[in-house]
Amino acid sequence: MSNAPTASALGDLRILDFSRVLAGPFATMMLGDLGAEVIKIERPGVGDETRSWGPPSDQHGNATYFQAVNRNKRSVVLDLSSEAGRTRARQLAASVDVVVENFRPGVMDELGLGYETLSASHPGLVFCSITGFGAGDGARLPGYDLLVQAVGGLMSITGAPDSAPQKVGVAVVDVLAGLFASVGILAALRHRDATGEGQHVQVDLFSSLLAALVNQGSGFTIAGVVPARMGNAHPSISPYELYETGAGQLVLAVGNERQFAALCDVLGAPELAADLRFAGNRARVEHREALTHELVQRLRSAPATEWAARLTDARVPAGVVNDIAGAFELARTLGLQPIIDVPGPDGSVVPLTRNPIGLSRTPPSYRSPPPALPDELT
């Protein structure tokens, strides 16, 4: 993928980013990829906590965690415990369109950098606060992704029925909150551009997770159903899980009647499609165990890779379970260009995951690698 300069959707936008770790930095990196200038405020000598979150690290000892969410940013070191640092921060805030922060609620106000203070002299400012549990009664609770996955119900529906609750293998709540924050910022900017009025955007991890529970959440809010762990099975669709084969495991994600009939044909068992127990998705869900037994009996006659190829040719959603290396290799073979080389000023490159947003006229750009921590206060 070319890194040549292109027209950018947010090229006239300046963002002052006080956030650390994941949710806030992810949001500002997304906006930076779309052209925004992002000024990242970091603590003297330490910087963002994720600079020390390793292994793994690159050949220079830089933690890959930090590098995942901090490209297209410029680092500025400020000591916000000093009046000089706070004064410099206010000066920078006066020159930007957006401020992003994820301190404990009330900290920015204590520093004289809160929304009310900054917007008094900069009414067009969009100020985004990302918290763990909101600024009300949940303000005292620490906003860590694992904690939110636990108390937010996600762990209760993740894992096998007879296993302990499981977290998702990546800090997915932070990522979701970062995406919600970026959407909120863009909506506030649209309003600002139309009226001149800025506003306070507030996103919390807990509410982000509840919103992302989608069908599991509506099952509770509408029908009062409290779901339990089902392993890889789906509460409302079948066959839609992981199945044993003659060698390895196969994922089937059958979402309609054509796909189910095609699955049965590929398995050499068209009679399953005619079986009243499996006539329609609701019946298949009700008879999930019987259907799984019938499918596995036939799937054991060949390895998962062979079934995946044959079913894909029949337009039945199927695949093997890749590791991360396999996932990136599959994306490469599909022409999705999953890795981009972000050029550094010294001619080096940092290979990072591509921004998934495709824009025909103002595509994402990769102008600078994650910044080194400056040695001196700015």
Task: Give your account of this protein's structure.
The chain folds into two domains: 14-213, Crotonobetainyl-coa:carnitine coa-transferase, domain 1 (Rossmann fold); 240-331, formyl-coa transferase, domain 3 (2-Layer Sandwich), CATH 3.30.1540. 37% of the residues lie in helices and 14% in strands. The strands form three sheets. The chain has a six-stranded parallel beta sheet. Strands 7-8-9 form a three-stranded antiparallel beta sheet, with helices on one face. By secondary structure, the protein is α/β, with parallel strands linked by helices. The protein has helices at residues 23-33, 64-68, 83-93, 107-110, 115-121, 145-151, 172-195, 205-212, 214-223, 257-266, 270-274, 281-286, 288-299, 304-313, 324-333, and strands at residues 14-17, 37-42, 74-77, 98-101, 126-131, 199-204, 240-244, 249-253, 318-320, 339-343, 349-353.
Give a quick account of the main beta sheet: strands, pairing sense, barrel closure: 6 strands, parallel
User: Any idea what the CATH architecture of the largest domain is?
Assistant: 3-Layer(aba) Sandwich
**Given the structure, what is the number of helices?**
15
Number of distinct beta strands: 11
The first-level CATH class of the largest domain is given as Alpha Beta
- CATH homologous superfamily identity of the largest domain: Crotonobetainyl-coa:carnitine coa-transferase, domain 1
3D shape: elongated
Order of helices and strands: EHEHEHEHHEHHEHHEEHHHHHEHEE
Binned strand content: 5-15%
- What spatial order of strands do you see in the largest sheet? 3-2-1-4-5-6
State mean pLDDT (0 to 100 scale).
Answer: 95
CATH topology call of the largest domain: Rossmann fold
What structural class is derived from the secondary structure elements? Answer: alpha/beta
Count up the domains. 2
Q: Summarize the amount of helix as a percent range.
A: 25-40%
Low-confidence stretches: 1-5
Q: Note the gap between the termini.
A: 34 Å
Rg, Å, rounded? 25 Å
